[in-house]
Amino acid sequence: MRIAVFASGNGTDLQSIIDATVNGKLSAEIGLVISNNQNSGALQRARNHGILDVYLSSKDFDSRDKFVGALINILECNRIDFIALAGYLRKVPPEIVGKFKNRIVNIHPALLPSFCGKNMYGMRVHREVIEYGCKVTGVTIHLVDNDYDRGPIVAQRCVPVLDDDTPETLAERVLTVEHKLYPEVLQWFADDRIFIDDKKVKIISI
Fold first, then answer.
1. What structural domains does the chain harbor?
2. Cα torsion for 39, 43, 45, 48, to the nearest 10°?
3. Catalytic residue set
4. Phi-psi category of 185—alpha, beta or left, where left has phi over 0 and alpha has psi -120 to 50?
5. pTM, to two decimals
6. What's the pLDDT tens digit per position in 149-171?
């Protein structure tokens, strides 16, 4: 499985995927890393490991069609067959979603369907969780469709919310779980253990 990782920020989830491929916990190859932010830590992490890093932003194209065409071309030229979103703060074009149907996943720092939607990411999510008074939050990995955070859920893990948590302390604890869960789920796909039927995801036991 050749993966393209899309990331906008520091890239800690990307690093967990890279580490898993290095230590043998993920039998897949990261073919390239794409970011809409040319100063993202994710691109630097890719360079550090000899992975092709690509800055690609729709703002640099005359039209949406040219941007989508460039994105498709990059994915095809690098023989990508799976996409992992790791803190990518742009909506994936529907042409890409259709081309990679059931082969794009996203990680979200809460238990979907709660605390989701456009502009709900990062510290905003953790702040909302705390302000709402939740005792439990977590991590969700889901398939990507054309609606924000609405694709079928593949896996979830719970994380307790402590009485003295700040968004920063909660984020740190959630990230620890993200870094363990994401490579594990990607390995399920690499092993063809994911079966999708009528928008429901089943994980085949081995």
1. 2-203 (3.40.50.170)
2. -110
3. 108
4. alpha
5. 0.95
6. 899 999 999 999 999 999 999 99
